[in-house]
Design goal:
20 strands, mainly beta, 4-stranded antiparallel β-sheet, 247 residues
């Protein structure tokens, strides 16, 4: 699928798998037919890079978020821009549709998450509390809960109906990059620049498990190794090497 003239930053499939949307630094969103690879719609309007895209559950609407601080809602069949949401004050870095398709969530460099009514374009709630960029959003499968992840190293769990905070999840030591709910909505997965994936119990907010890939020197025994400095030895241990106590 060729056509973008700058870096492609994000992708989203329609729920039925028939379409894929791509957002780019070239300021456009393109909608492609998966089976044919042909361009279906070229959506132009953003004045800076497109940072995130998402399909509505019925596949008839695409929402895009941009470095121009806007959220734009598009009709897939006609390619028409339905409306532009301009209430964020900085780059919009994440968007997500609710499972019913009636709400859109947007996260921004202005540290807020906003919930919008898709049909009217009216704001429902402003979710404030993060103290840095919001990078990741995810609705629970039943649409009652929204999770947001931030550069502040925290995940916040919100009640969609009220906009109230349910839990603040602490544990990551760097930026949160992505979030995903399990199909039953009971567990949330998060990934971070701290090189871990964590699983959380949504009801209690407790971290259930942490996964970290083994370092490239996992299991290497450097006990008694010579010719390396203490700094190099420490670096190897961080990357998985083992140093046993010498008797």
């Amino acid at each position: 699928m060729h056509g973008h003239t700058e870096a492609v930053t994000n992708l989203a499939f329609s729920l039925d798998g028939a379409l894929v949307a791509s957002g780019s630094y070239d300021r456009t969103v393109r909608v492609w037919g998966v089976k044919t690879g042909q361009l279906i719609q070229l959506l132009s309007g953003h004045t800076r890079a497109v940072r995130a895209v998402a399909f509505s559950p019925d596949g008839r609407t695409v929402v895009s978020a941009g470095a121009d601080a806007t959220v734009r809602v598009w009709d897939v069949d006609s390619g028409r821009l339905r409306y532009t949401l301009s209430e964020h004050s900085h780059i919009v870095s994440a968007v997500a549709f609710s499972p019913k398709g009636d709400l859109v969530a947007s996260g921004s460099y202005d540290w807020t998450v906003r919930l919008w009514d898709v049909h009217s374009g009216q704001g429902r709630h402003i979710l404030s509390g993060h103290i840095s960029i919001v990078n990741a959003l995810g609705f629970s499968p039943d649409g009652t809960i929204l999770a947001s992840g931030s550069d502040d190293q925290m995940i916040r769990i919100w009640e969609v109906s009220t906009g109230q905070i349910r839990h603040i999840l602490h544990g990551h030591t760097s930026w949160i990059r992505s979030l995903a709910f399990s199909p039953d909505g009971a567990t949330l997965a998060s990934s971070s620049d701290d090189e871990t994936v964590k699983l959380w119990d949504v009801e209690s907010g407790i971290c259930l498990d942490t996964f970290r890939a083994q370092g490239p020197y996992a299991g290497m025994n450097i006990t008694g190794a010579t010719g390396i400095s203490e700094v190099q030895r420490a670096a190897l241990k961080v990357l998985g090497a083992i140093q046993r106590r010498e008797s």
